[in-house]
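Observation: inputs received (chain + 1,3-dihydroxyacetonephosphate).
Thought: call the complex predictor directly.
Action: predict_structure
Action Input:
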Amino acid sequence: MTGEGTRPRPLVAGNWKMNGLRTGIAEVRAVSAGLAAQGGPAAVDVLICPPATLIMVMAEILKGTQVSVGAQDCHWAPSGAHTGDVSPEILADAGATAIIVGHSERRADHGETDSMVRLKQEAVHRAGLTAIVCIGETKGQRLAGQTIDVVVRQLQSSLSAGTTSANTVVAYEPVWAIGTGLTPTLDDVADVHSAIRGQLVDRFGPDGRSVRILYGGSVKPQNAKELMSIDNVNGALVGGASLKAADFLGIVDAYA
Ligand code: 13P
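Observation:
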């Protein structure tokens, strides 16, 4: 992990959400082949988070490549009577190396609160995996000028005391930018990421400088480079554009 004064190694993570049949595995093969053709190791970490059903097969296919596999959510218990849920231990056993927690779609569709997100983050660490903790304001909060307050509060309540740059990645995803084609201005992204960095350093000391902060929300090959040029943007969490290898590779290229 990088130290004080140096930029953390970028991470480009694809979140497939509730998309992906077995036929989608061809896209993952194409991503891995595309990166290999560029003669890696590239200066960027690449992660794909498919539906849980595809984790095991993808982990097998991607073994020894530059691409890792992650999951989109987990329960906080290691095992037990929780019908339909999966634990970090189960996901690790399937080959996941990272788990997204607190995505705004989980918060909205399943009523997940900051304290539930913190429990999930701690559970991810218990299983030895990396937690990608998502935060972001709604359109109403942005229009009311509350963006920084909301994001800082979510960060304070969603991150556990055991957060380090090795076990946690923060993803800033404005809810109104997800799947809409809209993005904040570059200045707005810079302001929010700088506030997040400030919080991380206040709370976790110098190691807070090395925690990767991803931007997510309508990232495309066309805007990836300008987003990556912003201070404290250490990669991207990509939804729709991660489903097609060519688009995803175009984004990875911008961060390499
Ligand atoms: P889109 O890239 O489709 O806007 O989704 C972003 C996202 O929610 C990734 O987690």
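Thought: report the result.
Final Answer: Residues 15, 103, 173, 178-179, 216-219, 237-241 surround 1,3-dihydroxyacetonephosphate (CB under 6 Å). The first helix runs from residue 25 to 37.
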